[in-house]
Amino acid sequence: MNSVAKMLMLAGVILFLLGLLWQTGGKFFPLGRLPGDIVIEKENVKFYFPIVTCIVISVILTLISYFFRLFR
């Protein structure tokens, strides 16, 4: 089996596990509603900017990419 096929299968498994974690873990880890996320509510407008959620996701993805490079 070539390396591209292995990488695609690994990416599929990782995406499946992330989706499962997102679905079940949303009750315990409120991703998207963290302290520090900006929410401004006016009469007809609701502005939402998840700054802390973006930082957390960025750190997690950086660590995952670091480990992929480490074991390469």
Q: What's a concise summary of this model?
A:
The chain is mainly alpha-helical. Helix content is about 60%, strand content about 10%.
List the helices and strands and how they pair.
Elements: H1 3-25, E1 38-41, E2 46-49, H2 51-70
Antiparallel strand pairs: 1-2
Describe the structure.
This protein is mainly alpha-helical and 72 residues long. The chain folds into 2 domains: 1-29; 31-72. 60% of the residues lie in helices and 11% in strands. The protein has helices at 3-25, 51-70; strands at residues 38-41, 46-49. It has a two-stranded antiparallel sheet. The longest helix is centred in the N-terminal third of the chain and has 23 residues, at 3-25. The model has no long low-confidence stretch (mean pLDDT 86).
Percentage of residues in strands: 5-15%
Total of helices: 2
Q: How many individual β-strands? A: 2
Percent helix:
55-70%
In terms of quaternary structure, what is this? single chain
- Order of strands side by side in the largest beta sheet? 1-2
For this entry, give a set of tags.
72 residues; mainly alpha; 2 domains; transmembrane; transmembrane helix
